[in-house]
Amino acid sequence: QVQLQESGPGLVKPSQTLSLTCTVSGGSISSTSYYWSWIRQSAGKGLEWIGHVHSSGSTNYNPSLKSRLTISVDTSKNQFSLKLTSVTAADTAVYYCVGDFRITRTFDYWGQGTLVTVSS
Amino acid sequence: DIQMTQSPSSLSASVGDRVTITCRASQGIRNDLGWYQQKPGKAPKCLIYGASSLQNGVPSRFSGSGSGTEFTLTISSLQPEDFATYYCLQHNIYPRTFGRGTKVEIK
């Protein structure tokens, strides 16, 4: 069974960069059947799709975040990562890494989520 | 972006009740809609995709219907484990967008 686990700081200062990594176990991130996605959830905005990366390195980002966002994949480590620059309090949320099955376009596999708070 | 509007935002129901939740898209999305269930402190779980296809392992009391701009999720006989928040998600175009959720509470 594929499992995903987020890791990274739980507290980030305003204007700094939020960096998270997702480790995939029980399956290969090189599978061409999946996009590897980030989704966040906050009380203010609800569930928000951030973007995804394919094992080929191709990406698709939410336009609302695109100018601050980088999602990358490291197939040698079976990991993918999120970097969001110039964060504000509005970026405070639970961040999930998610496996997105391309055929049915379903978010099949989810990490447990990690709370990131932006505060000085 | 496509806006997804769910109704109601919350409802109270009893075990055994039939429950219907509606989701409207701000533009036509064919049948490119999924339904997700989220319990407190947990990640969402996919129940339905393609508007009406049941995800593997999901009980048959869950069903979905609709096409274009109007969609429904029906729980035919509510069970204790079904008390949760339900979200619709459009996967027609990027960015993918979710509804704001419907919280199903115990009456």
Biggest β-sheet strands, sense, barrel of chain B:
7 strands, mixed
Count of individual beta strands of chain A: 11
List low-confidence stretches of chain B: none
Rg value of chain A: 13 Å
User: Helix- and strand-based class of chain A?
Assistant: mainly beta
Strand content of chain A is over 45%
Helix/strand order of chain A, N-terminal first: EEEEEEEEEEE
Largest interface: A-B, 18 and 24 residues
CA-atom Rg of chain B in angstroms: 13 Å
Largest sheet of chain A: 7 strands, mixed
Report helical residue fraction of chain A.
under 10%
The tally of helices of chain B reads 0
How much of the sequence lies in strands of chain B comes to over 45%
Oligomerization state: heterodimer
Query: What structural class results from the helix and strand content of chain B?
Result: mainly beta
Element order, helices and strands of chain B?
EEEEEEEEEEE
- Mean pLDDT over the residues of chain B: 97
**How far is it from the N-terminal to the C-terminal residue of chain A, by CA?**
39 Å
- Total beta strands of chain B: 11
Account of the 3D structure:
- The complex is a heterodimer of chains A (120) and B (107).
- Chain A has 120 residues and is mainly beta.
- Chain A is built from no helices and 11 strands.
- Chain A has strands at residues 3-7, 11-12, 18-25, 34-42, 46-54, 59-61, 69-74, 79-84, 93-101, 106-110, 114-118.
- In chain A, the strands form 2 sheets. In chain A, strands 2, 4, 5, 6, 9, 10 and 11 form a 7-stranded mixed beta sheet that branches. In chain A, strands 1-3-8-7 form a 4-stranded antiparallel beta sheet, with no helix packed on it.
- Chain A is globular.
- In chain A, 37% of the residues are buried.
- The model of chain A has no long low-confidence stretch (mean pLDDT 97).
- In chain B, strands 2, 4, 5, 6, 9, 10 and 11 form a 7-stranded mixed beta sheet that branches.
- The interface between A and B is medium-sized, with 18 and 24 residues.
